[in-house]
Amino acid sequence: MRNYTKKFLVMLLVSLMATALCACAGGKAGSADADSLITIGIPQDLDDSLDPHIAEGAGTREVLFNVFEGLVKPNSNGDLIPAVASDYSINEDGTVYTFTLREGVKFHNGKTVTVQDVKASLDKCAGTESGEPLVAAFSAVKEVNTPDDKTIEVVLNEPDTDFLPNMTAAILPADHLDASVELIGTGPYKYVSRSPQENIVLESFDDYWGEKAKIKNVVLKIVADADTIVMNLEGGSIDLMARLSTTQASQLSDKFDIYEGTMNLVQAVYLNNAVEPFNDPKVRQALCYAVDIQQIMDFVSDGKGTETGSSMFPAFGKYYMKELNDIYNTDTAKAKQLLAEAGYPDGFTFTISVPSNYQQHVDTAQVIKEQLKEIGVTANINLIEWDSWLNDVYIGRNFEATVIGVDASTLTASAMLGRFVSDSGKNFINYNNPEYDAAYAVAFTSTDDDVRTQKYKECERILAEDAANVYIQDLPNLVALNNKFGGYEFYPLYVMDFSKLYLK
Amino acid sequence: MRYVFKKILSSIITLFIVSLLVFVAFALIPGDPALSRLGTNATESALASLRHQMGLDKPLMVRYFIWLGSALRGDFGTSYSYSMSVTSMIADKLPITVTLMIYSLLLMIVISVPLGVYASYKEGTLIDRIIQIINQIVMAIPPFFSGILITLFFGMILRIFTPGGFVSISKNAVGFFGFMFFPSLAIALPKSAMVLNLLYSSLNGEKKKDYVRTAYSRGNRSKTVFFGHMLKNASIPTITFLGMALADIIAGSIIIEQVFGIPGLGRILLTSIQNRDYPVVIAIIMLVAVVVIICNLAVDIIYRIVDPRVEENT
Amino acid sequence: MKKQKKMNFNIILGCILLAITLIPALIGLVWTPYDPQKMDSSLKLAGSGIRHIFGCDNFGRDIFSRIMSGSGITVMIAVGTVALGSILGTVIGAFTGYFGGLIDEALMRINDVALAFPSLLLALVMVSLLGTGKYQVMLALGIAFIPSYARIVRSEYIRIKNLDFVKAARLAGAGDLRIMFVHILPNTKTVLLSSVMIGFNNAILAEAGLSFLGIGVQPPDASLGRMLSEAQSYMFVNPGYVLFTGATIVMIILGFSLISKEIG
To answer: Which residues partner with A474 through β-bridges?
Structure first.
């Protein structure tokens, strides 16, 4: 009996201590109820980095899009419009880009943007100090000059008429270049606070230079468990959620408007080309033949996806090649034959690592596992958190295969194709093909638009024929928005523009 | 006094062992925190300087003592994923989880005691049997399933609360406590069934004791006997069980936070484990360990004061 | 007499519940009516019917088959966990209880702390060290279960080691190991058995909990916890999915607790 009483005392003390701790920690002053508020669900916390120059996660960038701006920024048609710059010109051979600073653009801390801020931000991307470019595309930048306090000149090493999209790189205050903790940008929304795994709070920026945001408060609520999305929406705890699966969307009541677009990414089984057996193109091709894309779409998106045969999605118009979709039509016999030729007549076993917060990718992986059984290949699925995906798969390259969607950070072909150059830092699949490197180099440096387009297309064809990855689709993007609100706009990029949303 | 001193010393040693074990275990897991921060684009020199800055270039034992030194001052380092102080992250989330625990403990008592007493009072009747059967079933429901059932029933059918609609206490205290009722209920339900069961059987055990028999044989079937004596005696093992249920409540709250989308300590622990944000994981584990060990220590000492004859408990 | 009758009733009910759940689970390890992983897009979220009595999930997989194989995996993990925890726990408890001394003191200190932790939390830490997957879960839970068995066995050894029959054996020249495992171990049988019963229930709960959190069994493998977490997303389209899966867990646990209540 004494022992029991003792345990009771332990319990009592624990709860007392806990209450005390609770009392110490609690009592944070909350913000007053504001005029308008929208709560937007996001599938992961922004835990890679809040620095717009470093952030790799598409989900992070789509939020930062509202906080930071570059000299230019994309609009919903995919055209680049002047932002922090009011105007720009490119000299004839495409080596000097000259920008005029827009007057009176303010940072969120109230300071006016100066050319020094612009230069410091661009120098940071180009890695002028360390000698290592922070943003790969900025290796082309020779120098950034500020002839007067209104003009910024970006001088390139080689002529490049297609460099402008890179100037969407965020402009930060010169004395706040490390944006990983404190976010100060020029966008329509300013960062207010965050609570890990709970939310990120943004507030409209009153001194925004352009059309101001219509909704005062934006709360980004982390809904890491895809299973609870429908409950969150129906229960009213979030008003907007993008990238729903068709099953999720079909469960919603008419309280929600469903917007249908595309996600603007290439979903594929990305294969680590450096590990056995995926270093053998025959094995990779066999997988391509074994996979039935129509069936995947039927399960994952009720057949609504758009097939992609290479690393390019349809929003790119000029570069997207529909014909590549037909290189591998499902052919189990052919797949088995290729496997046998490669020395795997009885198949093999490998692991697909999938980030668990993306229902579509998880579902796709499960369908593919079933399809690969047909050719005797066993795929094990390993569900991991988004952050471990980023660390192990993307950065660490320690994986065999993964199902993910790769998007473009800017609307340039190089944003999609540059990563497969053998020495690219973003080449997480370790693709290594001298032929590809050569074609890409010509395309990247060419000033002739026709040559450039043709060479980029050649790159796409190489990726498809060499079966660098098992390409699947550009997923449909179903966005559920509470019908109290309107104004959702799709971009040809993986971004969400909060400033256009309004209360009906 | 010597006893107290000895107990404190041994608790400190225990905590020391735990912290060492936890720290070393997590330090030995493969992976380079510096690399995952900078990415593969990083140059070797940048990596080396970050490793140096994070102190990762020092020998394991040196790192441990540096960590221990700052941990003793309440600084558990910086989260890898959030670049913010681990201490403030935990301080931010702790109230949520603690509320959940205390709330469910209270609910357990409120649900189980009246029902248990009533069933025992009516022993042998139909209503007693019905309570027993329902109780047995409820006891077998794991907390996450009771969570789902509560969401389904109260959230989606009756629409009394918004599933996933957690609001923080600073924003809306009423909403916060209103919402927390349901996850707490999910944790409390299966446990209440166990408490009810225990209370019921110890009450029935009391009935067979001489003082009750004597009272009954004298025709004194009054409520005074029942409530004044039997309940008092029977409540001791029940209260003890509530104490032992604490570990289960902590475990239950980790799962229930997931079911109801509550961003508490459990949620942070879970994502930090999966994201390998070890400073956070270690800090949370140590927090639990410290609380448990200090309470053990305090209980030992109080016992010594209350009853000096207490023998060394093996 | 009345008491006797009630006891039988509990045991019979427990056995019936376990028969309903565990027999299909055991069969499910080798045979199911449909391939539990076979997808069929025409059966997506189909409701209950004659061919698929519990309906189908979001991939058109037969839920009944998945529950069969899922409970098979869950039970298998529970058996493995209890075996690992009780065997290692017994060995550790035997040595520390029999020899005592400094190692005993140190191990019991750690044990105290480990016991104070919720076992789910311990298992979480173990999983973060070992990785996910069904064997990792078995190992993680097994390790997390060691302390409780070690403690029980240790105190039994302390109690028994000074009894006369052990002293006699020692005088007869038996070695320490022989005394520990031939003479003392059989005497801990009753205590061990009842804690194995309780441990089995805890293991099922812990596995379901881990898999529910998404860090246990990986898809497309089914385990009851994993399925429950998947079923949660389709709660409104096919509530049967959640309810049947949950009910299976409840029945297994209820069955065991009914039986162990009477035996223990």
So the answer is: A306
Range of the domain at C21: 2-36+56-263
Find chain C residues with C-beta within 8 A of A388's C-beta: none
Residues of chain B within CATH 1.10.3720.10 domain(s) are: 91-307
Q: Provide the token pair at A379.
A: 């795929």
Provide, as residue numbers in chain B, all residues whose Cβ is less than 8 Å from the Cβ of C239: 152
Each residue's pLDDT expressed in tens, for chain A with a length of 504 residues: 445 555 555 555 555 454 444 444 333 333 333 478 999 999 888 877 788 888 877 888 889 999 999 999 988 887 889 999 999 999 888 889 999 999 989 999 999 999 999 999 999 888 887 777 777 778 888 999 999 999 999 999 888 877 888 899 999 999 888 777 788 999 999 999 888 888 899 999 999 998 999 999 999 998 877 777 887 888 788 999 998 888 888 888 899 999 998 888 999 999 999 998 999 999 999 999 999 999 999 888 878 889 999 999 988 878 899 899 989 999 999 999 999 999 999 999 999 999 887 888 998 999 999 999 989 999 998 888 777 788 788 888 889 999 999 988 777 888 899 899 998 888 999 999 999 999 999 988 777 788 888 999 999 999 999 999 999 999 988 999 999 999 999 988 888 999 999 998
Is residue C105 in some structural domain? yes
Q: How far apart are CA A351 and CA C131, in angstroms?
A: 13
Residue C56 DSSP code: B
CATH number, domain B91-307? 1.10.3720.10
Task: Check: CB of residue B195 under 8 Å from CB of residue B112.
Answer: yes
* Contact residues, C window 181-220, toward B, CB-based 8 Å cutoff: 205, 208-209, 212-213, 215
Q: What is the rounded CA–CA span in Å between residue C249 and residue B225?
A: 41
Is the predicted ipTM greater than 0.85, yes or no? no
User: For residues B202 and B229, what is the distance between their CA atoms, to the nearest angstrom?
Assistant: 12
Record: contact B152-C235, CB cut-off 8 A: yes
Nearest CA in chain B to A19: B98
Instruction: Please say whether the beta carbons of C105 and C196 come within 8 A.
Output: no
